[in-house]
């Protein structure tokens, strides 16, 4: 923490340190630790930071946040950068919002939803303008635990900026974790087949499992405990997408009133190799992904070494791009049920040349009631 705090101390004018609030918010890495260790680390920070730094910092400013909070902060961050909390622009798309016990509905700028796929989990957050957004009372009841209602106004009475946001985290739906789940599925099926039918497919390098999700000719082995699976790519994107079906859980969402931004894996998957970042078009993406998948592994490695892909693409990306593009497509269209002709999804890393992180949303939320000088 010290280098980060020194950086902050150098940029905030020294006379202002005492009135500058500092928040230490911890995410998944800390959530994985036992409660006792989490508490010990936070206690250590609370005791030691004030010994070296004069920022406004107390015990309530250090916490481990939930996946739900992280999703809310990411949602606030992108909508702030896009100016969706502003009042000036009357030409912008607006939405009518009905909130709880308020008699009058609010009319304000329409916000955008976010999709964020990391290595292990997937998050979605979008505004629910009214409770009528759910098709049945049961669906609304189930969604209550996933709804976050919060006020971004300057005080509690100021209800013009009360937002109701649906936030959900799907653990195991990140790109790398999904690949592990897929490999385990194939491994289990292969070993079950060999016991029942005496088939040797996948059990040796001579008779590999022909994996439609890897580029043509790429050879790979997967080991889980005592069991090993030998794979050779056959680059069939459609067949790959079909095999991923059992790994999905349905999560129908209401996106009729919103546009979405896809971050992290959604951006890498469309941009790093396929160069299709920005507005997402399902047929264009499918055609490019199929074309990539069908190439021989030697051709792809040659292109990679020749610098034909983005500077962010590494060998891991080139190897698993076929799988990840099929997974992303299935998550969007089979998991979340986005129609193939959905016109309002963009994948992004920077918005107006600014990197949008959940931390921006967190500081806006934490300081919303501070008096503005």
Automatic annotation (TrEMBL):
<keyword id="KW-0378">Hydrolase</keyword>
<dbReference type="GO" id="GO:0004382">
    <property type="term" value="F:GDP phosphatase activity"/>
</dbReference>
<dbReference type="GO" id="GO:0046036">
    <property type="term" value="P:CTP metabolic process"/>
</dbReference>
<dbReference type="GO" id="GO:0005794">
    <property type="term" value="C:Golgi apparatus"/>
</dbReference>
<protein>
    <submittedName>
        <fullName>Ectonucleoside triphosphate diphosphohydrolase 7</fullName>
    </submittedName>
</protein>
<feature type="active site" description="Proton acceptor">
    <location>
        <position position="70"/>
    </location>
</feature>
<dbReference type="InterPro" id="IPR000407">
    <property type="entry name" value="GDA1_CD39_NTPase"/>
</dbReference>
<keyword id="KW-0067">ATP-binding</keyword>
<dbReference type="GO" id="GO:0005524">
    <property type="term" value="F:ATP binding"/>
</dbReference>
<comment type="similarity">
    <text>Belongs to the GDA1/CD39 NTPase family.</text>
</comment>
<dbReference type="GO" id="GO:0016020">
    <property type="term" value="C:membrane"/>
</dbReference>
<dbReference type="Pfam" id="PF01150">
    <property type="entry name" value="GDA1_CD39"/>
</dbReference>
<dbReference type="GO" id="GO:0045134">
    <property type="term" value="F:UDP phosphatase activity"/>
</dbReference>
<dbReference type="GO" id="GO:0006256">
    <property type="term" value="P:UDP catabolic process"/>
</dbReference>
<feature type="binding site">
    <location>
        <begin position="119"/>
        <end position="123"/>
    </location>
    <ligand>
        <name>ATP</name>
    </ligand>
</feature>
<keyword id="KW-0547">Nucleotide-binding</keyword>
<dbReference type="GO" id="GO:0017111">
    <property type="term" value="F:ribonucleoside triphosphate phosphatase activity"/>
</dbReference>
């Amino acid at each position: 923490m010290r280098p980060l705090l020194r950086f902050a101390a150098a940029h905030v004018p020294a006379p202002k340190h005492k009135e500058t609030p500092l928040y230490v918010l911890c995410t998944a890495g800390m959530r994985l630790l036992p409660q006792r260790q989490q508490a010990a680390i936070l206690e250590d920070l609370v005791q030691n930071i004030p010994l070296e730094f004069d920022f406004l910092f107390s015990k309530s400013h250090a916490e481990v946040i939930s996946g739900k909070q992280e999703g809310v902060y990411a949602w606030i961050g992108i909508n702030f950068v896009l100016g969706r909390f502003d009042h000036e622009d009357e030409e912008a798309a607006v939405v009518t919002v009905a909130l709880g016990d308020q008699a009058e509905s609010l009319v304000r700028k329409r916000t955008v939803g976010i999709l964020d796929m990391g290595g292990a989990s997937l998050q979605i957050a979008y505004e629910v303008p009214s409770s009528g957004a759910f098709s049945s009372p049961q669906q609304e009841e189930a969604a209550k635990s996933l709804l976050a209602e919060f006020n971004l106004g300057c005080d509690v009475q100021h209800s013009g900026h009360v937002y109701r946001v649906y936030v959900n985290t799907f653990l195991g739906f990140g790109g790398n974790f999904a690949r592990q789940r897929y490999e385990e599925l194939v491994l289990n099926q292969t070993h079950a087949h060999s016991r029942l039918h005496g088939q040797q497919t996948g059990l040796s390098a001579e008779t590999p499992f022909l994996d439609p999700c890897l580029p043509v000719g790429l050879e790979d082995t997967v080991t889980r405990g005592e069991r090993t699976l030998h794979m050779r790519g056959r680059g069939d994107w459609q067949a790959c997408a079909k095999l991923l079906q059992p790994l999905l859980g349905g999560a129908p969402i209401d996106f009729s009133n919103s546009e979405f931004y896809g971050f992290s894996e959604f951006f890498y998957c469309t941009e790093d190799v396929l160069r299709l970042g920005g507005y997402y078009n399902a047929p264009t993406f499918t055609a490019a992904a199929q074309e990539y998948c069908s190439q021989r592994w030697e051709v792809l490695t040659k292109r990679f070494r020749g610098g034909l892909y983005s500077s962010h693409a590494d060998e891991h990306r080139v190897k698993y791009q076929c799988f990840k593009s099929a997974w992303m497509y299935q998550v969007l269209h089979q998991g979340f049920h986005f129609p193939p002709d959905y016109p309002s999804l963009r994948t992004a890393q920077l918005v107006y040349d600014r990197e949008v992180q959940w931390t921006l949303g967190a500081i806006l939320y934490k300081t919303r009631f501070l008096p503005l000088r």
